Amino acid sequence: MRFADEVAIVTGGGQGIGLCLAQALAREGARLVIADIDEQAGQDAVRQIAKQGGQALFVPTDVSSDQSTAALAAAALAEFGAIHILINNAALFRNLALKPIEEISGAEWDRVLAVNLRGPFNTSKAVLPQMKRQRRGKIVNISSNTVFSGGPGMSHYVASKAGVIGFTRCLAREVGSAGICANVVAPGLTDTEAAQSIIPLQRFDAVTGLRAIGRHQTPADLVGAVLFLCSTDSDFITGQVLNVDGGQIFY
Ligand SMILES: NC(=O)c1ccc[n+]([C@@H]2O[C@H](COP(=O)([O-])OP(=O)(O)OC[C@H]3O[C@@H](n4cnc5c(N)ncnc54)[C@H](O)[C@@H]3O)[C@@H](O)[C@H]2O)c1
Question: Which stretches of 81-117 are DSSP H helices?
Fold first, then answer.
């Protein structure tokens, strides 16, 4: 098992892509900390991981709050005594209202940036002291391939996901000598409840037509890339963006 005895925090791990990644890490022996604002989803995720024989703790978390992310890191340490992996996957995406720029209020813009960009900053800040003590850590930040193409009605979301890439590059420079790697995975349109809540079904088929590998993308398609970046196989790779979208965009 690739992650035996390792401790992994997955933000937004209650459902969708985050849950799929958490389950995959658990199958490889990691002990999981599910950090999600949705308590029902978080508790269900823990039960599902336990059912598959894994070990998981749910910590109700709002990643936009630094008090909440400090409490998250403290809870992970109290329960498991270490933090090896952080996957920043939580985002405001489900039910996001797609609107032209002139119709996005300042408050909507700020909330999306607070969760999607300040969130990874808050969680990284919270886990870095422990990762530095261990002289080992892997941080994987989930962006989006919309950063390379733009997306109408999604300026706040796409700006936040572009910010994640800039933040990760600075993070990688700052912590490399402490044995910590930070990288980005940029998914293409992925079939989750959240994506279906904002993107019409015809758009999924249209995107399929743009891919070198012409089919719908599922959360499972992200597992290989993310687990590689969490593993020792990628110990000399940091500050990079891995676009996982079936060959839709070559950048
Ligand atoms: N599904 C796609 O097409 C797609 C494409 C590219 C990128 N992504 C990214 O992948 C990630 C997962 O997307 P998904 O489709 O699984 O969405 P999802 O809505 O199913 O998952 C997001 C999770 O984040 C949680 N969350 C939201 N706000 C939070 C907060 N303030 N604090 C803590 N948790 C919070 C939600 O409760 C949810 O469990 C997101 O970062 C999304 O932007 C998704």
Answer: 106-116
Q: Is the pLDDT of residue 42 over 90?
A: yes
Q: What is the DSSP string of 77-115?
A: HHHHS---EEEE---S-TTPPP--GGGS-HHHHHHHHHH
Average pLDDT for 102-115:
98
Residue 233 lies in domain? 7-244
Q: Round the average pLDDT of the chain to a whole number and report it.
A: 97
Q: What is the pLDDT of residues 44-102, one digit of tens each?
A: 999 999 999 999 999 999 999 999 999 999 999 999 999 999 999 999 999 999 999 99
How many domains does the structure of the chain reveal?
1
- Please tell me whether residue 71 adopts helix, strand or coil conformation: helix
> Does residue 249 lie in a domain region?
no
- Residue 251 belongs to some domain of the structure: no
Q: What's the CA gap between 247 and 133, in Å, rounded? A: 39
Domain at 126, CATH number: 3.40.50.720
Q: Does residue 160 have its Cβ closer than 6 Å to ligand 1?
A: no
Active site residue 157: yes
- Ligand 1 atom having least distance to the Cα of 217: 3
Among 3, 93, 121, 157, the active-site one is 157
Report yes or no on 170 lying in a domain: yes
**pTM for the structure as a whole:** 0.98
Whole-number pLDDT of residue 20: 98
Distance between Cα 214 and ligand 1 center (Å): 24
Atom of ligand 1 nearest to the CA of 88: 41
For residue 195 and ligand 1, the question of a CB distance below 6 A is answered with yes
